[in-house]
Amino acid sequence: MPFGAHETMEVHEILNEKIHLINLFGRMAHETENHQLRQMIERHLQTAVEAYDQMVAYTHDYGAANRMPQVYGMPRMSPEQVQYGLHNPAPMLPQPQQAFRDQQIASALLLAHKNSAKNHMAASLECADPNLRQMMVNGAITCSNQAYEVFLLMNENGLYQVPTMNDHTAKTFLHAYQPTNSQPMMHI
Fold it and tell me: Name one Pfam family in it (predicted).
């Protein structure tokens, strides 16, 4: 079964991205000093390797779709576990000549996952092959979950602060949207 032109190019882009993520994650795991961050990076690295190998296997043998890995799951979280508000955020500026610190490694990991989630979802929209499409969707969900895991670690350690707005302002803004009250929609 041949692949379409769009999906062939999208798979090429995702596989190329995976190679660079695998290389980057390996370097990050080696350079970080934080044990918890290192363990997280190593888990994410293993997931990236499995996803890469699975997609490569499928492009070589359509029967490999039967061996799809599961989506990377997240433990249940409640909104109360997230720390909201700004608490003396540190100034941010480029520092291209310095060695990476754990905060920079965590930020790079977070951005890599966010971008990979977007890239996987965009690629899924171009796939005609249902198995390939599902691999892309699973990749987007996995990267999204891994990004959230990195966010939670950063947030817990004060490295990712969540700006807030006045509670009254937020509620006024969002409460402008009202339920449909299950009114049937009129067809024009």
Answer: Coat_F
Extents of the domains making up the chain? 5-75+100-174
Which CATH number among 3.30.530.20, 1.20.1260.10, 3.30.1050.10, 3.40.50.620 corresponds to the domain 5-75+100-174? 1.20.1260.10
pLDDT in tens, 6-58: 889 999 999 999 999 999 999 999 999 999 999 999 999 999 999 999 999 98
